[in-house]
Specification:
190 residues, globular, 64% helix, mainly alpha, 0% strand
Length: 190
């Protein structure tokens, strides 16, 4: 069996395309004008949350990290559809992912991982989705900290979480001031 030739042009194009995610604001800015996060920053934060949850749930951290890092790559081609948009648009994310990853060394593995993520049957896919939701909870606590809508958002998001670790973490996040980490550091250095 002949070894498949590496297509460096395709890999380079893929990497440049993924880099565009740092320029793409998430579409919740339609209803949260103060939101300034991008798809790239969301994926990075979700991956860290996912790794923490995977450790807490004793799941495959490597798989969770990959699911979290790659779960929104299609949005480089499809854009980010918020909850409202998703009721009116056909995103064809599967097609976008297959086109993005074709002829790259990631193609088979990442497509399989993202298929597993979408099915939500494995503990890793459930954890990755919980991480995605917890990232949004952190953002809402920051963006809506002065709003009466925060409590309603938190009640809604808590219902969607599946793992015990994610539910406990979300409850802790909701009770905390987003600046406690800074105040605690400042107090400890005096």
């Amino acid at each position: 069996m002949a070894e498949k030739k590496i297509n460096y042009n395709k890999i380079t194009d893929f990497l440049f395309e993924i880099g565009t995610l740092r320029n793409m604001k998430r579409m919740h800015c339609q209803t949260l004008p103060q939101a300034n996060d991008t798809i790239a920053s969301h994926s990075f934060e979700t991956a860290i949350i996912g790794m923490v949850l995977a450790k807490m749930e004793k799941a495959d951290e490597n798989k969770v990290l990959k699911m979290c890092l790659f779960h929104d790559i299609a949005e480089a081609r499809t854009g980010d559809a918020n909850f409202m948009h998703s009721h009116y648009t056909e995103m064809e994310e599967d097609k976008a992912i297959k086109d993005q990853l074709s002829s790259t060394p990631l193609e088979k593995e990442i497509i399989e991982i993202l298929d597993e993520y979408i099915e939500r049957k494995s503990i890793e896919s459930i954890i990755a989705k919980d991480a995605d939701l917890i990232n949004q909870t952190l953002l809402q606590c920051d963006y809506l900290k002065e709003s009466k809508d925060l409590a309603r958002w938190n009640r809604h998001s808590m219902k969607l979480l599946k793992t015990k670790s994610a539910k406990t973490l979300a409850k802790t996040i909701i009770r905390k001031n987003p600046f406690d980490w800074f105040y605690n550091f400042s107090d400890a250095t005096k």
